[in-house]
């Protein structure tokens, strides 16, 4: 019994073709010229507030009987919960980094 070798797939291009690809995201080439961390945090907090407001509005609609699809509320509440968890995790990492810097200076 003969065992044939595995043949490469022709539909998949080799990874080396991506090595010379240009960036099309519009992001600045210089990392120092990128987005300010403070602005990123402020935008993240604004998105968190928006998600919580949406979930609150849908909860009120569910309580008053005006909500036609309960899944909308469940999805919005889950998104708000995940956004809150992410915000707390970022805050904890920032505090850990601050404490580590303070220990290095002591």
TrEMBL record:
For this UniProt record, the keywords arranged alphabetically read as follows: Bacterial flagellum, Cell projection, Cilium, Flagellum
| Cross-referenced Pfam families | FliE
Q: Which GO terms describe its molecular function?
A: cytoskeletal motor activity; structural molecule activity
Zinc in keyword set: no
Q: Does the keyword Protein biosynthesis apply?
A: no
Q: What is the top-level taxon of the source organism?
A: Bacteria
Predominantly, its location class is other
Matching entries from InterPro entries are given as:
FliE
Q: Name one GO biological process term.
A: bacterial-type flagellum-dependent cell motility
What family does this belong to?
Belongs to the FliE family.
Instruction: Please give the NCBIfam families that the UniProt record associates with this protein.
Output: fliE
Q: What is this protein called?
A: Flagellar hook-basal body complex protein FliE
Q: Which GO terms describe its cellular component?
A: bacterial-type flagellum basal body
